[in-house]
Amino acid sequence: MVAGVAAAIAQRQTDVRDVLAAVTPGGGKSLLPVIMGAALMRAGLIDRICWIVPRDSLRRQAEEAFADPRWREALGHGIALRAAENGRDPCRGLQGYVTTYQAVAAAPDLHLQEFRRHRYLLAVDELHHLPAVADTGTAATAEDETAWSRSILPLLESAAARLLMSGTLERADGRPILWLPYRAPTGVRRMREIDFKAPGWAIVGYSRRQALAEKAILPVTFGAMDGTATWLDAERTTRSVDALSRAGENTRDALFTALRTGFAQAMLREAYRSCREHRAKRRAAGTGSGHEGAGLGKLLVIAPDQETARNYLDTLRGWMPGAQAARMAQIAISERRDAQEVVAAFRLRPEPAVLVSVAMAYEGLDAPAISHVACLTHIRSRPWLEQAIARATRVDPHAGAYEQQRAVIYHPSDMMFERFRQMVETQQGTRAMVKTRRQHELPFERTVEAEPEIIPLESNATALRFAVVAPGPDFGNPSPGRDAADRPPATSPAKDGVQVPSAVEHHLRQRIGQIVAAQVIEDQDNNLVAEGPVSYHTYNAVLKRCMNKARSEMTLSELEAALGWLERNRISDHLHLIADDPQYRWSSRRKARGAGSVTAFSKPARRTPPPGTGKPVS
């Protein structure tokens, strides 16, 4: 579909420049920018590609989509994108870059100038996160989603072509979505509807029903768990429900209580046991032996908040053998510095087999190994829930036949989730077709509300809709003598042996830093420098002068050239290049003051202001 539209644009058979792809979550959106970018670049209609994603954890996935050797061969393209920071020349000699909503909002002029220098295909992932600017009515703050829309809108206006992707064409708050063409409302029809015949637009849809028919995604099996809950309300009166499924107006408070007390632990145990049993069966059938444990299945736990996520992790690790716990179960939350590495390892490696997260793994996580999801969240908007269940519906190429793969979703049996579940079951053909109401009439929460002013006391699980899975063997497949210290490093995991550009850049920068540090130590130990300081900072400044660029700004080819230069030369032979460098003198004095010592060359240091500031140095 998108391939046909891209081919028509490339052959100048249509005036379309905006392509909207409404693809069910898990239906393969990440391939669409590759298809369209390859066609338009080959036709000479674009020079560069920019792919904007909603989360930093998705940038590597976007790089991998263009680096995938199978699609490079199938589409005959040699395009490479890099995960860029907000620095000069985001492409660094490649054909495009990947960035985030937040990065664009932080430096909108930098990205706009880049779009004005080149003809860009702009791919915007999960467009429904961006509300239409004209509908806001209030000034935007840096934290508001409107700030993202205001920053991305000029890029949409400047792009040579646009590919807009989303798993849903409806926002949780009911507002219109940025850039989409809507029909003019009439007196009878008040609901916003997209104009599928808008000039210059091509709108492509790929529904859950189509994806299931083509075996592009897995059917979902739901495990609905009911239970009791008791809490103190805002007036400190004891409240309780005998069943979440019959909580009525108390559903919100009952659910809040259940997710933080005994009910959550019971549901977590069922999801853990079910996934463990599934992994045992897959291992017994011989799956995983040829791909270092791939294809066995994994468990994703979605928690309501970060504190509860940490409690869930402790609970899960308590059910595992001590030697495996830290290796097999990990957490990815925003306050953890290693969150991105944990998510990447969960996606690309056999371990960890259990990931606890809040929102980081909620949307766009491309991890086909996920077979079970414990949906322990109180969010009930349709777009959020669709994204949650889609984490398990991707087909795993290492897990054997399609019919043998599973997508099991454990969830609380409350009224709102049950209605969402009925919609999904209807779409995937497990229920008889019935006439359904329009989406906007479903009683889903439109926004994520503040936490209720209650004190959870206790809750218990009372029923599960399908048979309880018997306990199986340990989650991992332990090897003698293997522990956490034997694990490979969690940085720069490669997909199918292919390193993405940002990972290669990181490796080259690290290698250059290691060589510079080694030369410093060698020169200090052997007294090879007669005059002047011998320090890492000094040698870095010399290397920058020799290469005419800091390595943080170098392209891949420039980094390779710098590495080659270091292998043939000694930095100490070029110290004279920075003897009269005011920028080096200023930075070295700052470092010296911070270290409580003075570092200078033999000449008296002039009080030179930092380059480009014009300010005196005190």
Question: Any overview of this molecule?
Answer:
This protein is of the alpha/beta class. It is 36% helix and 14% strand. The chain has helices spanning 2-10, 32-42, 59-67, 69-75, 101-106, 108-117, 145-158, 208-213, 251-258, 262-284, 306-318, 322-328, 339-348, 382-390, 415-427, 501-526, 536-547, 556-568, 582-595, and strands at 18-23, 48-53, 81-83, 96-100, 120-124, 161-166, 201-206, 221-232, 238-241, 298-302, 329-332, 354-357, 370-375, 408-412, 455-464. The strands form two sheets. Strands 8, 9, 10, 11, 12, 13, 14 and 15 form an eight-stranded mixed β-sheet that branches. Strands 3-4-2-5-6-1-7 form a seven-stranded parallel β-sheet, with helices on both faces. Strand 5 (120-124), helix 7 and strand 6 form a beta-alpha-beta unit. The longest helix has 26 residues, at 501-526. The relative contact order is 0.11.
